């Protein structure tokens, strides 16, 4: 979450992580976004399932397990109509949904690269879960681009 936040910090965003059950567990918020009325309803402990909030990125991704963007009036409740929310699923080492990573902002903020950044961050979390699950085993890591291989991080369990 922190890596994603630092990539988009200062651009009026909130990063959020919810469990597979749609309950918001943690957020990191730009001050500019945190001061908005919309941000006041996005806080740890709130429930974002489709059953309780209608169409929203966190709840819909928790339900479908696929990445999604919900923009403005696509939200079920009008109170969230000024937001754009981009979410991606996070799966554990066994392929079970572990949670949902989300980046939310007001609809006027630039969204050009956010989808890719959220998906990449979700993949990084999944890699960490996989490494943790298999930390007592020898892992062989292959990639066509060497800059994506970080043996020191893999072997230290980070």
UniProtKB/TrEMBL annotation:
Domain GAF stretches: 19-127
Lineage, top ranks: Bacteria, Pseudomonadati, Pseudomonadota, Alphaproteobacteria, Acetobacterales
InterPro entries the record matches: GAF, GAF-like_dom_sf
Superkingdom in the source lineage: Bacteria
Organism per entry: Rhodopila globiformis (Rhodopseudomonas globiformis)
Pfam families, A to Z: GAF
Protein known as: GAF domain-containing protein
């Amino acid at each position: 979450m922190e890596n994603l936040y630092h990539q988009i910090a200062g651009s009026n965003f909130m990063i959020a992580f919810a469990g597979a059950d749609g309950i918001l567990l943690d957020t990191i918020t730009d001050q500019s976004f945190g001061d908005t009325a919309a941000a006041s309803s996005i806080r740890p402990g709130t429930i974002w399932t489709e059953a309780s909030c209608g169409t929203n990125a966190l709840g819909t991704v928790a339900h479908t397990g696929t990445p999604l963007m919900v923009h403005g009036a696509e939200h079920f409740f009008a109170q969230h109509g000024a937001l754009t929310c981009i979410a991606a699923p996070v799966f554990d080492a066994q392929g079970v949904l572990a949670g949902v990573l989300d980046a939310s902002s007001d609809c006027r903020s630039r969204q050009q690269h956010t989808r890719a950044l959220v998906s990449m961050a979700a993949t990084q979390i999944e890699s960490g879960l996989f490494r943790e699950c298999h930390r007592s085993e020898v892992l062989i890591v292959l990639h066509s681009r060497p800059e994506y291989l970080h043996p020191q991080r893999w072997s230290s369990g980070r």
